[in-house]
Amino acid sequence: MGSVPNVTPADAVQAARNPLSFIAERWTPAPRTVQRAALAALVMAVLIVVTGGAVRLTGSGLGCPTWPKCTDDSLTTTSAMGFHGVIEFSNRMLTYVLCAAVGWAIIAARSEKPRRRSLTRLGWAQFWIVMSNAVLGGIVVLVGLNPYTVAAHFLLSTALIAVATVMWQRTREGDTPPRPLVGKAVQQLVWCLVAAAVLLIGVGTVVTGAGPHAGDSSEVRRIPLDWETISKLHAVLAWIVVTLTFALWFVLKAVDAPKGPLHRTRELFLILLGQGVIGYVQYFTDLPEALVAVHMLGSCLVWIGVLRVLLALRERPLADLGIPGPSQAGSSVGAGV
């Protein structure tokens, strides 16, 4: 067993002043460790959305009727608050687990050699989004689950998933300038797909805000729109996303694109099909809570799938980091495509 290095007073001062720098000087994580840390942050970002949905679907949104305390007199839930209090307070505690996962990703990224500031910035971006969303979540409770604040809460979580997905992808790439794998026309088609997906998610929050699952058993304000009409608009947008995805796959096959974009597009298409089946089943079965929860998970997976398609349109070789990467099959599509 090796000897434990002595920690001098100067080391203690340095650790207190800049703990990230202190750790980075003494630890170099393996590339796989950094990748797993980024993936853990992404998984927790999705999990917090699903558990937040469980809070709403069980009517536990006001299980802790105030914030930051659970009640005016207690920081934690009490036995008098029953099942709903436990559900709401547990979701609040899960935020700390999310913070730990994001913190681990930041530490791993900061300690990687050579230092990659782009990764560290993405980690800190996640941290500030989490902090902002925690405050917004408190506002949601304080305003009695106002549907507009609930929608903003979900959209901010969607932004967190986007940043976490980009960071996870960047841990598996180098820092060289990105090289496009497809032509301008294909890139524009994918950006149309991204825009349609953003609209789909945005209208989905309106469906939630106008729908029957208010998040609490008491009278909660709903968005004053016809729920069935908004649901049909949501379905139309979903079909647009499916159509764009299929068109993209067809174009990529026609121009003999590299395998990366093809595989990501096929994965997205399969996720969309599953999400569509769940969506129609829940619509025609009066929105059972279990299916709505699965649909929320599917929404996160669709968004991740769309972003992975976008990120697959370019490559950053890993050679500059000394990390063995996947084979770069195929060649770039001509600029005229």
Could you explain the architecture of this structure?
The structure is a single chain. The protein has a two-stranded antiparallel sheet with strand order 1-2. The protein is mostly helical and 337 residues long. It is built from ten helices and two strands; from the N terminus they run ααααααβααααβ. The protein is flat. The termini are far apart. The protein has helices at 9-17, 19-26, 31-57, 82-111, 117-142, 147-170, 184-210, 227-254, 259-284, 289-311; strands at residues 179-180, 314-315. Helix 3 runs antiparallel to helix 6 (147-170) and helix 7 (184-210) packs antiparallel against helix 10 (289-311). 68% of the residues lie in helices and 1% in strands. The longest helix has 30 residues, at 82-111.
